Amino acid sequence: MLVDICTYVKPVLSVMDAVVGMEGQGPSAGDPRKIGAILASESPFALDVAACSMVGIDPDTVCTIQRARERGLCSSRLQDLTLLGDPMEDLLVRDFRIPEHKHAGMVEQYFGKDSRIGRFINYHFGPRPVFLQEGCVGCGNCAGNCPPKAITMVNHRPEVDLKKCIRCYCCQELCPQKTVAIKRSWIFRTFQ
Ligand code: SF4
Ligand code: SF4
Description:
Blueprint: H1 2-9, E1 14-25, E2 29-41, H2 44-54, H3 63-70, H4 88-91, H5 104-111, H6 116-125, E3 128-131, H7 141-145, E4 151-154, E5 157-160, H8 170-174, E6 180-183, H9 186-191
Antiparallel strand pairs: 1-2, 3-6, 4-5
Helix pairs in contact: 5-6
The structure holds iron/sulfur cluster (2 copies).
One iron/sulfur cluster is lined by residues 131, 136-142, 158, 175, 177, 179-180.
């Protein structure tokens, strides 16, 4: 869908402000990280490939880049890009912390798009939301904004039905107390 929108809008120039980025549990519970770069490209897909490479993420594990590559919109290899400006080597952030919920692209990379084993692994071992008791104020934001209504408030505390959970992580994004953690099983930590 994001690639569809991008190809429809046809941006002539895409600019990424990476002076201060966010690492860890983005987009709302991450930590600021000084990167010190501004990136620009006529291709938003190439821009993403360069940005991922800069912070140590394999572009082939990012779903939007995978889809763009499949459609022939870009290469996912940094060496195929024409880079101008400061040398990439000077901009690399070698210890950038990625979000715990980065997973779908990795499974697709190893097992293929929409494969049965990929879906099985994502469902049974994929990252899942865990509600921390300490700090939760029982506001119900998570339950109210859960798209499939997988969260029930019990005694002012959220409980999730993982069979209904679609792993969108809206609950984590919208928790004002940052008391929703994303837990990954060993299998995803191994593949990272
Ligand atoms: S990850 Fe999404 S679907 Fe799952 S409980 Fe949180 S908001 Fe609901
Ligand atoms: S949004 Fe956060 S603080 Fe509010 S009920 Fe859910 S987990 Fe608790």
